[in-house]
Amino acid sequence: MNRLVFLLLGMFILSSPLSAQFKEKPVLNIENKDKKFLNYGYYLGLNQYDFKFDYKDNQGTDAQGNDLTDIWVAKSFGFTVGLIGEMRINEFLDLRFEPGLAYNLRTLRFPELLSSSSPELREGQSIREVKSTYINFPLLLKVGTRRFGNFKPFLIGGASTSLNLGSNETALDDNSSGTFRMKKWVYNYELGFGIDFYLEYFKFTPSIRGVFAITDELVPDNNPSSPWTGNIDAMRTRGLFINFTFE
Description:
Layout: H1 2-14, E1 38-55, E2 72-74, E3 77-88, E4 93-97, E5 100-109, H2 111-114, H3 119-125, E6 127-144, E7 151-164, E8 185-198, E9 203-213, E10 232-246
């Protein structure tokens, strides 16, 4: 799936009219676009979320050699949509605020329960679907090069906070009742890169960005020896964003 996304992105960039931007002396489009103090736009994109787990103890392997420590995460692609507010600092630096909404589904599989002798635990309790709807509030610094004709590469990075609308943080039920709980607020840092393409009427920007949670998101089960959360010391989100921006 990842290869397909990058292939489609490459084909889109090389197709008209973007391919014309790489000519030796292209006609400059929207020359004064980046000279404005404030710019606005919106973005659409894809996301893929993962979890990074830190464990208290290494529980070894079962009789079949399966790892009993590492929780398996089945990732999927979700969608992202948001707005952009940009403040020009100078020719090379811009401060950006990019509030947006990201939806994603992660499926967790617990090896300790999958190898349980109880059929009920294996079939009904060893898998948890984690549906997350994040409202993201990133404050980012965009560092660009000089404009080359009608395109300009850049790096981008900064900090963000996210509100997880599907966290279940205040739920009284836990995994023993089928409810996986996470904290509502998450704090992250973000790093990425992209290319601004100056088209005839607007600026189009494909970019790739990594999002890395700083804070622990797990709300442990009520039972300290829970087979789902008892051995987890910390759980943090990692995300990949492929965004298409229009300004």
